[in-house]
Amino acid sequence: MSGGPAGIGTADFFYREAQRLGYVARSAFKLIQIQKQHKLIAPGAAVLDLGCAPGAWLQVACQNLGPLEKGGVVVGVDVKKVKVPSAHCDSRVRTVCADLMTLMKKQARAMSPQERGFSVILSDMCPVVSGITTKDAAISCELGMRALSLAVGKMKAKDSDCIEVLEKFQSSTEPDPDDDGILRRGGSLVIKFLENEDIPGFAKFCKEKFKKVSLLRPKATRSSSREIYMICEGLR
Fold first, then answer.
1. Is 192 a catalytic residue?
2. Given 36, 105, 135, 192, the catalytic residue
3. Distance (Å, rounded) from C-alpha 55 to C-alpha 68?
4. Which residues make beta-bridge pairs with 122?
5. Strand, coil or helix: what is 167?
6. Which helix (H) or strand (E) holds 136?
7. H/E element holding 118?
8. What sequence ranges are listed for the domain Ribosomal RNA methyltransferase FtsJ (predicted)?
């Protein structure tokens, strides 16, 4: 299948749809598809959105919280200040400006209701793409690793045969002495990666921690993009 105009056409479709429906970015449709297929966000959920700019996933997450009386929260974290979009968001959505590479689990947990952690963690973080494939993939894995360790806590994978992959990206500067993750038992985690040979190692580790792990390339992904989402359901 050749890329080119068809890819551009698809981009235009999702871009136009986003404008028509009041989403701040076409990436909204990626989470819409993930949610449709996996039903991760239940009414009243506590959702943490890592790398939330420009805010499209905040909108979709809030839409899935159900009516206001159900409660729930959506907390978006990004290294730049993000204004909560006015469309599709209500008082349950807020944003925090912080660098995820230095954010302590204790600080992240403090953002959750009653500090009990989150039921869903979404990471749409992506490196500033340099065009150097291996470099971009490595940074993408580091960001994925950070999301994973925030969610499930210290990687005790000594007995795991994916330890090499984990240690490769468990940044030597892991800032956090806290052993416990901030994802509640039974919770779900979504991580965006740029496709590379280390993903199977990540998936293998996640399969030890979660009941179900799958990979998805949403339809709204541009044809030129190498991004893929790892969807982990049911933290053990």
1. yes
2. 192
3. 20
4. 49, 190
5. helix
6. helix 133-152
7. strand 118-123
8. 23-234
Kindly give the confidence (pLDDT) of every residue in the chain, 236 residues in length, as a single tens digit, with 9 standing for 90 and above: 334 444 455 558 999 999 999 999 999 999 999 999 999 999 999 999 999 999 999 999 999 999 999 999 999 999 999 999 999 999 999 999 999 988 999 999 999 999 999 999 999 998 888 889 889 999 999 999 999 999 998 776 554 567 777 777 776 556 666 678 999 999 999 999 999 999 999 999 999 999 999 999 999 998 889 999 999 999 99
Q: How far apart are CA 76 and CA 89, in angstroms?
A: 12
Give me the residue spans of the domains in the chain.
5-235
- β-strands 93-97, 118-123 pairing: unpaired
DSSP letter at 70 equals G
CATH of the domain spanning 5-235: 3.40.50.150
- Is residue 127 helix, strand or coil? coil
| Rounded Cα–Cα distance for residues 222 and 64 (Å) | 25
Whether the Cβ atoms of residue 85 and residue 58 lie closer than 8 Å to each other: yes
Q: Would you state the structure tokens that stand for residue 211, as one six-digit string?
A: 């009941």
Alpha-carbon distance 160 to 131, whole Å? Answer: 32
Q: Is residue 143 helix, strand or coil? A: helix
Q: Which two tokens stand for residue 94?
A: 């807020």
* Token representation of residue 61: 């997450």
